[in-house]
Structures are given as structure tokens and as C-alpha cells.
Amino acid sequence: MLDLLANPNTQWVLVGTMLLGITSGVLGSFALLRRQSLLGDAMSHAALPGICIAFIIVGSKEMLPLIIGAGITAYIGTYLIQAFVKHSRIKTDTAIGLVLSVFFGIGIVLLTYINRNATGNQSGLNEFIFGQAAAMVRSDVNLFVIAAIALLTITFLLFKEFKIITFDREFAQGLGLPTVFINGLLMTMIVASVVIGLQAVGVVLMAAMLIAPAITAKYWTDRLDVMVILSGVVGGLSGLLGTLISAPISGMPTGPLIIVSSCSLFFLSLIFAPKKGLLTKAIRLMRLRKSTSQNQVMQGIYEFIEETGRNTLTLDDLISVQPLSGLRLQQTIKRLQKRNWLQRSTETYQFTDKGIKEAHQITLNQRMLQMYSMHEMQFAHLPMEKNNWDFLSLPNSEQQPLFELLSKHELFPSVLQERTEDR
Amino acid sequence: MTYTMWIILTASLVSVACSIVGVLLVLRKMAMISDAISHTVLLGLVSAFLITQSLDGLAMFIGAAIAGILTAVFIQLLNSAGVQADAAIGIVFTFLFAIGVILVSMFARDVHLDVEHSIMGELAFIPWTTVDWLGIEGVPQAVWMISIVLVINIILLFVFYKEFKLSSFDPHLAAALGIPVVFLHYLLMGMTSITAVASFDAVGAILVVAMIIAPPATAYLLTEQLGKMFIYSAIIAVLSAISGYYFAAMLDTNIAGMMATMTGLFFLAAFLFSPTHGVVIKKIRNRFTTYSNDEA
């Protein structure tokens, strides 16, 4: 591995793929938030005819003219998509698919034509379809460095403008920003980042370079600035990983490995990201279920005591006072016993001293919630949703009207009434 | 049948089969799903090859169809996990396609599973692989495959025509009436998959996408009736196939690519000059109305 890293060729490829990852990650964030991810797919496919036409005109495989040609047709494709959507009843997805496949078809026609009529210099333009990062040479990387620095600098300088236009175009217009220009500039920059990635990743897979890092970053933050930076990091990291994995294995394509790396990072985030990850969500749901069923059982027993005055419940009583299914009820009862809130004596169950206090609190909170919901307008100022519907922690003065309502409706929990009146 | 006729026949069958599923996909705003499915077919083909170690037609077909349906399922899964729709499509198909390319270059490099071929297609080779079946001799394998798929598509379309129609235009009403919307969704995904697979070998992934999206989109600009939309898009598809072949022969270039180009030209013509939706026609009509208003 270290030998490979010492190889100057590998170094250039490494620098190139990382730069591509960073720029497409950064600009992909904007594309993603503007819901234009698949536009990147259309752009990269639409670039193929441009590459071929540039080659026919220039007659050699020089990177700069090819990239300019690619950029021009990619831009035309993007424009056509927008025109189709704006001026006819064609929907966005249809327009994207149409431009993508037809431009690619034109590209294939030109490519086959060039391959069959190539004079002397066998063109090898095919590598643009699937990418060939290993074919990157120093002059290519130099070009990428310049392009990447330019794109990143513009993004940095115009970050605020891009942000506003991404989230609220009308507001940007209201502020007097030149929205048409900024929109066009952002679009041009996305096209540019797609086009410089083509050689490494190829037309077919380029879309993923825009989408995967951006959506990965979105799982870790809610802030655009953090997301853009993270997305750049993820993109660069995938470029690094893809190149390092593919370099020692001969015939292993770099582009697809870069894509697989970035998609794997996405899948990891999808599952494990804090707050938004599926695992965190599942755990949260499970906890919520547990505490809800616990509260339901506690309140059920409490209200049973309130109604009948009997302190002990048979299992049948327990089943009738709450809505849980058999298995869940058993689990909940076990948990309550473990917390020492519920006692079992042969056939019957009863609260411990600790348990009845807890049940009182739960019931009180639940009934305050009831009052709150009945008179929501009156309590609209209370930030209950933020407080997780915990009425017991409210200051006394806020609780008082709720208590009054409870007394009025004769809903004040009565088993432990004396104690609360002491407070 | 001459060599040319076989190619044109294959291309026409492919284009009609594609345009049938295409109409439904375009109307349901799911056109990009066809792009995703036609790419992931590659992974299905490679996996089928790696499991069976043969290039047997049926195994390949099943493998690819499974890959296609799995693509639709994965996209749906990501979508319900909160990933926005366009990103879900983009990430699923690029990921599966990338794995397909990696598997090909690791295990199947020497086999007839050329990745480039799978994208661009090579119609010119179609007439050379023939299979005799049902006492009919000398019919290319690809023609058999796509004919069967076409028949399946037509039958399913006739059987579920009303259901497809209603669930495409008003999914909520369809669901309320008890039409199995989810079943129809996956049925359509299945149809798209088998169509993509059968067409894939003949014309390549990209032409499949062009044939699925462009002729229906063109027909969408020409008529307001679903029945006519199917017929128009089939006619446009066949016209693109035939004209594409002759232009390709003239320029000595890739046939599938030329056919895709032709579908694009037909669409452009409809976009500009459709009697009801054409941009130019609308402009002319606007001018006339303003003149007559001035006179009045």
C-alpha cells in the first residue's frame, strides 16, 4: 500500500479523485436541497455529445476543449429540461429522463462514428462513459485543481446568496438580489462540477457523486453551512477510499468503487446517525412504547382503586382496566414489579407505597393534559410540546387554573388527595 | 426474412413493448424509475451468471427481473425512511449499477457480459443468435424474448386497463374504491423490469429509457385520451425505430443510439408543432386572438 502511495501516478489520481469528491459534494448539497439531484444525472449524460463534438473539432484528446464541449451540451440539456417543463405539460421527471436518454443516444451515435472513423489517434473517448480515474495525468489534475479552487471560492464568497435562493427564492427576489443571475451561476457551477468529474467516474455514475455525499451529510445536521462542509468531506473521503481500494487490484474500476464508498457512507448514516438515523428512531419509538404502556397500566390501576375503593386487583381486573395486549401487559407488569411499584401476592396485585405515589402523579398529569386539551385556547401560552407534556414541572401559578378546572369537573385524583392538598 | 428486416422487427417490437409501460410510467410521474430499473438489470444479469455459472437465457431473465423489482422496492423503502424521492432513485440505481460493474470486472471479465455493450446495445448482432421453437426456425433469440414480453404486456394492459387508468389519474379515488393500488404499482414495476430485460440485450439500457419515455411523452402532447395515447406512442416508437435504422446505416454508426436520437426529434417536433400543445402553434394562435381582439 505504501509503495503504491509513493507512486507519483497514484498520487495524482488520489489528489484528482479527492478534489472531485469535495467539489461535487459541496455543490451537490445545493442540488439536493433544490430537489434537482436527478438533474445531475441528465447533465452528465447530456455532456457526452459535447465531448464527442469537441473531439471532432479539435481532433485530439485534450482535456480543456473536451470539458468545455461537455459543459456546453450539459447546459443545453439542462435548459431544455426547464423549457419542456415550463412551456408544456411535460412533468419534470419525464423531461429529465427524455433529455438524459436522447442526449446519451446522440452521444453514442457520435462516439461510434468517431471510433469507426478515427484517424490515427485512436480516441478512447469510451472511458468517459464509465470513467477511468487511473488514466488521469498531471495536466488533468492541474486543471481540476484550478476548477475546484474556483468553484469552492465562489461558493464560499456567495454562500449567503446561494443559501437564500435555495430555501426561499421569492424572499431573495424581495431582497433585491439578482435571482436570475445567481440561479444561473449556481446551475453553471453544478454543471462544471459534473463535467470535471466525468473522466474519473463516468457519465453513468456521476449523478451519485452529487447525491450521495449531500444526502449523507443531511443526516448529521440541520444547518446548511455544516451540511455543505460535511458533504465535501464525505465526497473527498469517498474519492480517497475508492482510489485506495482499487489501486492495488489490477483491472478494478475506480469510479464504481468511489460510488460504492459514498453510498456505503450514506447507508451507515441512514442507520446510525444520531437524531435522524433509523436505529435512533427505532430506539426512541421503543422507549416511548414502554413508558406509554407503563403509564396506561399505572393509571388504570389507580382509577380502579378510585372507583371501587379496593386496593387489590386480580389478574382479570388488571386486564379489564387497561388496553394493552396480553404479552405487552405481562412485560409491563414485570417491569413495574422490578421498579418496586407493584406487588404480587399469590393471586392479586397491589401498589407499593412508592407505586401509588407514582400512579397518582401519572394520573394527575394525564388529567391535567385532558383539561389542557379541553381549554387549549386558554393555555395556548404554555410551551407544553417542548416540555414533553409534563404538567407537573410547571410553576405553581400555572398549575392553579388547571387544578381549579379539575376540581370543577370532579376529576382531581382522589386516592392520595390529602397529600397533594398539603403542597 | 433479410438481415435488415430482423433488425427492424426487433427494434419495433422493443419500442412498442417499451412504449406500453412508458405511457403508464409517464402518466404516473415515475419516468425516472425506468432509468433506474434499466441500469440495475446489469446487476441482475451478473448475479445470475455468478450463481448459475452459465449464460442460460432463462436464468439471466429471472435474475434481471428480480433485480428490477428489488430496485423498485429499495426506492420505496428509502422513500418511506424519509429520503426525498429523487435522491432515493439516484442513490439506489447508481449503487446497484456500480456493484454490477465491479462484479463484472472482478469475476466475469472474459464472459460475454460486456458492460459497454449493455449500455449501448448492439442491434447489428441480433440476427446471428437464432433459436428454433414451436417448429418455427431461424428466429433470433431476442425476437422470441421481446415478443413474449410484448404479449404479456398487452394482456396485462387489457386485463387491468380500467384499474390502471383510474389509479394513474386519481390514485386516491382508486384507493377509496378498493382498487389494489399497491399491487398495480408493483405489477407495473414488474412489467417495466421484464421489458427492460428483454430489450436490454438487443438495444442497451439507454435506448430502453429513451423508448420508454420519449414516445409516450410525445403522444402526451398530441392527445387527451388514454387509449389514443397508447396507439400514438406505439406508432411514434415504430417510426423512430425504422427511421433510426436507416439513418444509422447511412452514417455507419450505432443503431440504438440513432433510434434514441429519432425519438428525441419526434418529441421536439411535437413540443414545437403539436396542434393542441405545441409552443409555436400556441404562439401563432395567441397572435391571431390578439389581432381579432384588436379588430373587435
Automatic annotation (TrEMBL), chain A:
Topology in membrane: Multi-pass membrane protein
SUPFAM superfamilies reported in the protein's UniProt record: ABC transporter involved in vitamin B12 uptake, BtuC
Annotated TM spans: 12-33, 38-58, 64-84, 96-114, 141-159, 171-190, 196-215, 227-249, 255-274
CDD domains: TM_ABC_iron-siderophores_like
A Pfam family reported for this protein in Swiss-Prot or TrEMBL: ABC-3
Domain of life: Bacteria
InterPro entries for the chain: ABC_BtuC-like (IPR037294), ABC_TroCD (IPR001626), WH-like_DNA-bd_sf (IPR036388)
Keywords attached to this entry: Cell membrane, Membrane, Transmembrane, Transmembrane helix, Transport
Subcellular location: Cell membrane
Family stated for the protein in its record: Belongs to the ABC-3 integral membrane protein family.
Protein name: Manganese/zinc/iron transport system permease protein
Organism: Geomicrobium sediminis
Upper lineage: Bacteria, Bacillati, Bacillota, Bacilli, Bacillales
UniProtKB/TrEMBL annotation, chain B:
Transmembrane segments: 6-26, 33-51, 57-75, 87-108, 142-161, 173-196, 202-222, 229-249, 255-273
Similarity field: Belongs to the ABC-3 integral membrane protein family.
Main localization, broad class: membrane
Localization per record: Cell membrane
Protein name as catalogued: Manganese/zinc/iron transport system permease protein
InterPro entries reported for this sequence: ABC_BtuC-like, ABC_TroCD
Keywords: Cell membrane, Membrane, Transmembrane, Transmembrane helix, Transport
Keyword Transmembrane (UniProt): yes
Superkingdom of this protein's organism: Bacteria
Organism: Geomicrobium sediminis
Membrane topology: Multi-pass membrane protein
Family matches, as CDD domains: TM_ABC_iron-siderophores_like
